[in-house]
Amino acid sequence: MVNFSERYGESGGLNYLLDIPIDQQDELSQEQIDQAVWGDIDNAFSRPVSANDEHLNYVPTQILAESLLVEKYDRIIYKSALSEKGYNIALFDVSSATFGAARLFNVTNVRYEFTEHVNAWFPEGSNYVTPVMTNIRPIEDTPDKEEDKASRFPDLV
Fold it and tell me: For the whole model, what pTM was predicted?
């Protein structure tokens, strides 16, 4: 059994790493790296996937689940994103579980809450850029050429 629910909701992945100053990113501890990776994995398993989602959003967790199956794990547990008290169990081998009891629930209300996803980096051409200041210095010291500035920021030149 692999219990992915233990770190549900913890920060992880790209957003966690973006909070670490760039000059300290080469000095990450193994614990910080583990938190980033496992935080993202835990949250990815809990993220609902609907029929309208691109199948590519589902692929990473599917690959991880299939690799756990190959390694002879019998099930995974992950937190439900739709219920604070809920858990989901995916059985790779149904004979590994014993049926005890069952209850049927009617869904009477679903409420989605959201916040802006903080991702300060976005693609621009073949580079990733950020609107967040990461380096402050006099403009004459910047490596940008005037024509590059004019093409990227026409309203400011």
Answer: 0.55
C-alpha span between 2 and 97 (Å, rounded): 14
Residue ranges of the chain with pLDDT lower than 70? 7-18, 117-120, 131-157
Domain count, the chain: 1
Answer whether residue 105 is part of any domain.
no
Whether 72 maps to a domain, the answer reads yes
In Å, how far from its chain's centre is CA 13? 6
Residue entry with tokens 């991880």: 64
Domain containing 35 equals 2-95+110-152
pLDDT digits (tens, 9 = 90+) for 36-60: 777 778 888 888 777 777 777 778 8
Per-residue confidence (pLDDT) for residue 113, from 0 to 100 = 79
The closest alpha carbon to 28, from 39, 18, 43, 40, belongs to: 18
5, HSE (Cβ side, Cα atoms, 13 Å): 17
* Long-range contacts of the stretch 19-23 (C-beta < 8 A, 24+): 22/134
Query: And the tokens for 60?
Result: 């990473």
Q: Is residue 104 part of a domain?
A: no
In a domain, 57, yes or no: yes
Q: What angle do CA 90, 117, 29 make, to 5 degrees?
A: 75
